[in-house]
Amino acid sequence: MPNLVMVMPYQAYLEKARAEGFRVTALWDATEARRLFGAGAPEYLRQVEALADGFRLVDFADRAAYADAIRAAVRETGAAQVWHVGSEESMLLAYDVADELGKAVNSPRSIALLNDKLAMRTLLRDKGISAVRFATADHWTGVADLLAGFELPVVVKPAALSASRGVLLLTDPAQLPAWGRELGGYDGPVLVEEYLRGPEFSVETMTVRGEHHVVGVTRKLLGPLPHFVERGHLFGEPETPGTRQVAALAVDLLDAAGYQCGPAHTEVVLTEDGPRIVESQARLGGDKIPDLIALARGFDVKRAMFAALAGRTSLPSQDGSVAHIAYFSFPAGKLERVSGLDEARALAFVHALHFPFAPGDVLPETVSSKTRHGFVILAGSADAAEAQARADRVRALLEVEVR
């Protein structure tokens, strides 16, 4: 059974890794766990430790300590590979150290070209793929000077943040100071891009020995602008000429980046001029997309990525149903009362419903994927229209009062 050092393996990943024949030493950061899991982080990490064959906590922000922890884990376990398919912010250093040790699943360059929005845009421009006009500033305060070269509205985004954080449709330069405050402590490079109009998709792929396989195409449903926050995803719709173009473009990007193994999640807008890439990440799609794939196709994409690591290809059937995740976004404020949760959960087509608030809690304004107000996952729909109608039925049952 080969040993694998894995950074940020989620609980489900550890079970899937063992099923595909791997022993996993897990590296986690308690601060990152709190960001992802809130008050449940300590218990989550205890469960990770119980499932893993080895476990280390390290501060990912301490680059020297983080690198040393990877080296020590490889040295002590004799691991054949180091893998990171978690949050992008801590991914590149793991691949740098893995490359230094001769244990990298993918080259650091390929990871940077996919995860870093500026590096990806530059690669696509240089390769003549998916042309999108863009400019870059070293800091958000430099964006105003770039706007003369664009027609408003434009999209502004930090180059190195994930989960839709800081992505904004800028219609007026007067929005810039508020956007800068929204970025919090981020002081890295930012992008200004032309605004791409059209339906948006994500392409879920699995790469095995450098060959890219399309698991499926997910339709993204966006919430109200100016923030590009998804209000839902649909997986399992029939293939169309448009989605074939979208999928082919994602494969072109993976080829250009030199990606060799594992999952990728590539977001694409199908414009009047053809598909255009928004961004990509060297990991599984977030927002429960792996769960939608399992519900719609009966395919375990989490296990499939460990099969890919072992050099084995597995793909889903194209037959099945449509699965849908719909997110809740209620008025911001202090929660006074909520009703309808039990009635919604009792519906036969509701696979899961999550509303993590109780009276007295504050519902934040929805400006990123981390500030949405919960979700419902719907299984077994015949098509997208039925899935969305079911989501509307659930939303109609929920009554939320805030002040």
User: What is the CATH H-level superfamily of the largest domain?
Assistant: ATP-grasp fold, B domain
Q: What proportion strand?
A: 25-35%
- Radius of gyration over C-alpha positions, nearest whole angstrom: 21 Å
- CATH class of the largest domain, named Alpha Beta
Work out the number of β strands: 19
Shape: globular
Number of helices: 13
Major sheet: order of its strands? 13-12-9-10-11-14-18-16
Helix/strand/pairing class, anyone?
alpha+beta
What's the end-to-end separation, in Å? 56 Å
Description of the molecule:
With 403 residues, the protein is of the alpha+beta class. It has 3 domains: 3-105, Rossmann fold (3-Layer(aba) Sandwich), CATH 3.40.50; 133-194, Dna Ligase, domain 1 (2-Layer Sandwich); 200-402, D-amino Acid Aminotransferase, Chain A, domain 1. It is built from 13 helices and 19 strands. The chain has helices at 11-19, 30-37, 41-51, 63-77, 91-101, 108-115, 117-127, 176-182, 241-257, 289-297, 301-309, 341-345, 384-397, and strands at 3-7, 23-28, 54-57, 81-84, 134-137, 154-158, 168-170, 190-194, 200-208, 211-222, 230-235, 262-271, 274-281, 322-327, 333-339, 350-354, 362-363, 375-381, 399-402. The strands form 4 sheets. It has an 8-stranded antiparallel beta sheet with strand order 13-12-9-10-11-14-18-16, with helices on both faces. A 4-stranded parallel beta sheet has the order 3-2-1-4, with helices on both faces. A 4-stranded antiparallel beta sheet has the order 5-8-6-7, covered by helices on one side. Strand 12 (262-271) and strand 13 (274-281) form a beta hairpin. Helix 2 crosses helix 3 and helix 4 (63-77) packs across helix 5 (91-101). It is globular and about 55 Å long.
